Each structure stands twice: as structure tokens, then as C-alpha cells.
Amino acid sequence: MKRMALFALPLGLFAGAAMAQSVLPQIEDADASGDWSLTELQTAWPELTEEGFAAIDTDASGAVSQEELQTALDNGVIRPVEQDSPAQ
């Protein structure tokens, strides 16, 4: 967990505990692997770097699982993505 916090501040992605969110954003899993790659996550977080991705990928598998992404959101490592609301 300390590793994640170390990367959050330099990346400017720190959102604080008040921004914790329990719903994952809709992010396309382009390769249907069940996890997200850096490129896939960059569609929601364009500023995400390789170092930031590594901080989220806590098991160092090279992909981010739903659990890892939720933990990163809950701990303020990344900000929740504002979802576009349907046009009225």
C-alpha cells in the first residue's frame, strides 16, 4: 500500500478519501482478457503513466484486475471518472 501512495502524489492523481467510490467506471476491455492494460486504463485516465499503472497493479501481473482498480479508487490513488449522463 505504501508503494501506491508514493506514486499518487507525484502523478497528481491523489484524490483523497472523500473521493472514494464503490462503483467501477465503464472501461472497455478491448482484448477481452478480463483485466485492464495500461492502454485500456488510459482511455479513462489519459494522464496515467507506467509508474502509476505499476502502483495500481499490486500483484505485478502486468494487468489490473477489478479488485486492484477498486482498491486504487477506494484509497484515492486515482480519481473516479465522471461518467457522461445520457442525453435528455
TrEMBL record:
UniProt key word Cell membrane: no
Region described as Disordered: 65-88
The organism's place on the tree of life at top rank: Bacteria
Signal listed as a keyword: yes
EF-hand domain residues: 44-79
Signal peptide extent: 1-20
Keyword annotations from UniProtKB, A to Z: Signal
Annotated PROSITE patterns: EF_HAND_1, EF_HAND_2
Molecular-function annotations in GO: calcium ion binding
Protein name, UniProt field: EF-hand domain-containing protein
